[in-house]
């Protein structure tokens, strides 16, 4: 039997993923700072609970109405035109996407503002009347986030289709910094831990308006790199012929998928409003921590692989498609299991770092409860993109809908079986169960569509990663509990920080050692690619960072020929892109990169 291609076989994908991961770490650190400041200033209060519910509602509505459709549309619609250097088609498709987005979401934002009171009452029926009234007032200010999210999704897809990976990760960092400043300003005006009955209308408006300003920064900052592409965008409702043939199926797939996702999230948020008033804040923190390893470890590989998968499929190059997908999936599996081990191993100190002792144990249990789901959620990131690139929208939709709808079913079940005080951990466990179902269904769908070669070596990587994650998670948990036991059992914030860092180091060392011994074939090249990216310095002159992802050897002499393409065709493709994109673009990334 032929051995699967080593993980570095798509070394340029790994290099691009490492770039995305490094920037994502910085962005997520800013996000953690935002969460920490929110926890310190508002989370334990009744105003904090109303704020979480109201601020999440525009995102829920956006995802249901347009988010999934847009996210699934942009790269598949643009990949062929970008690969061929057809700037006119790229501009026309982008203009049509933006036109439809604003046409749909601006009226919807007005409708949300008008119906703020019943919407908050529906979602937050566990909140008090005063909380619901405050939440409705804030929701009216949050409503403009809907069209802003839509513009941001389209611009992100356009940039990633052009292999411009940095700005879509930098934008959330800038947004987090903006919102942190808003939280601190609010605290300066109203005081720390101000409740609904204590805050003035001016302070409430500062909080809600400043949060919406963060979304303005998140989306509109992407106009800076978009301008460098030189696309001439015009309002239009008409797509080019090639895009028109695919847009309907992709939009329906995204819409159905995200509807199921948001049903799960809405019911989960509703469930955690029962019990302690701090539950929404604890759930929000645990969910944020759960997203961290997913965004830093799993998503970069999926994002870096997507354009190449779409381009290979558009060219009919099944070999390139499979040789890109298989190592990307193996990497996602290993990294997701590493993230799961880290969540389990550091849950106790992280809970004590963010919350008071009476809430810390609940937070730790919720963080650990989310951990098993990282594997399924990581597979969701890469395999839905793989299916969309193939045009297999029905398979992706069915698998994702079933997985996400499993979450509310389990949340309601666990909510009845477990005590009210365990409501947040119950929802976390329900999320993990649904994500594991989702991941398994997607594996089956990809194997049926693309064949076993598209998932070559995934079973081996999964077994090695599961063993490594189990031992590393147990080791990290033992280390954290031992460190807590050295004190009085209630660590201070600084002690919890040190304990979390030491426990994390134990998890990382154990996972790497076990994974290296059991699956060196995948671990060595992936680790090499990451270290190379971390150690690479930016040249003194030239393009932007995302334009300068160098060749795998680093000496500029590699032959960047795609599998299955002749040297003549490869040369012609490079000439075509240079013709239409006169700015210097490194082709080290282009042949083997997916976003």
TrEMBL record:
* Membrane disposition: Multi-pass membrane protein
Which PANTHER family has this protein been placed in?
A: LIPID II FLIPPASE MURJ
GO MF, one annotated term: lipid-linked peptidoglycan transporter activity
Q: Where is the composition biased (Basic and acidic residues)?
A: 550-571
Residues spanning the membrane: 12-30, 60-82, 89-116, 136-158, 165-186, 206-226, 247-269, 289-312, 332-356, 362-383, 395-418, 424-446, 458-484, 496-517
Q: One GO biological process from the UniProt record? A: lipid translocation
Return the GO cellular component terms, semicolon-separated.
plasma membrane
Q: Which UniProt keywords apply?
A: Cell membrane, Cell shape, Membrane, Peptidoglycan synthesis, Transmembrane, Transmembrane helix
| One Pfam short name | MurJ
Q: What compartments host this protein?
A: Cell membrane
Please give the name of this protein: Virulence factor MviN
Which stretches does the entry tag as region Disordered?
A: 538-571
Q: Which organism is it from?
A: Micromonospora globispora
